[in-house]
Amino acid sequence: STKYSEYVRVKVRKYWVNEKAGVLEKNTSLDPALIKLDIDESVWFKNPNESTEEEDVYYYCNPLSKAVEGESNNALPFITGVTIDNQITTEVVLEGGTKNENGSITGNVTNKYIYDNASFYIEIEADAVQSHNAEAAIYGAWGVHATSTAEDDGTLTSIDGNATGR
Predict the structure, then answer these.
(1) CA of 150: how far to CAs of 42, 45, 66, 134, 157, in Å?
(2) Which terminus of the chain has fewer CB atoms gathered within 10 Å of its CB, N or C?
(3) Residue 44 half-sphere exposure, CB side, CA atoms within 13 Å?
(4) Which helix (H) or strand (E) holds 138?
């Protein structure tokens, strides 16, 4: 057990799946950007160098004190809300019917929404690294160059050359 405070990194993966024959399969036709996460970016820094359409990487830029043994440290609320962009309900495929010369459609028409039978998934992976000898510890554990206000227990002011605003 370490006596040092720790910096926290969180990786968030978001994607769509469909169930086929009892097996979940990733649906790559639906854009993961339609899954919107409410994360307080005044507390968490999103590193653009590590983030993709499907995965975002966040850093808590202040050292988190070690929790007392037997107690949890609930100091880091992360996701405060999830919203699905309403663009997903506007993309409709019409199945059936006949399109007439004037543009009208006659016959039986079925609206099929692109999200039919799809579910969204959010995976969160969190890890931490000691705040002692911060810049070397972060590079060794996470492979990113960080700048800190102090060798031990400082605030992270940049990650991979991106200012954290802290």
Answers:
(1) 21, 18, 18, 8, 10
(2) N
(3) 23
(4) helix 134-142
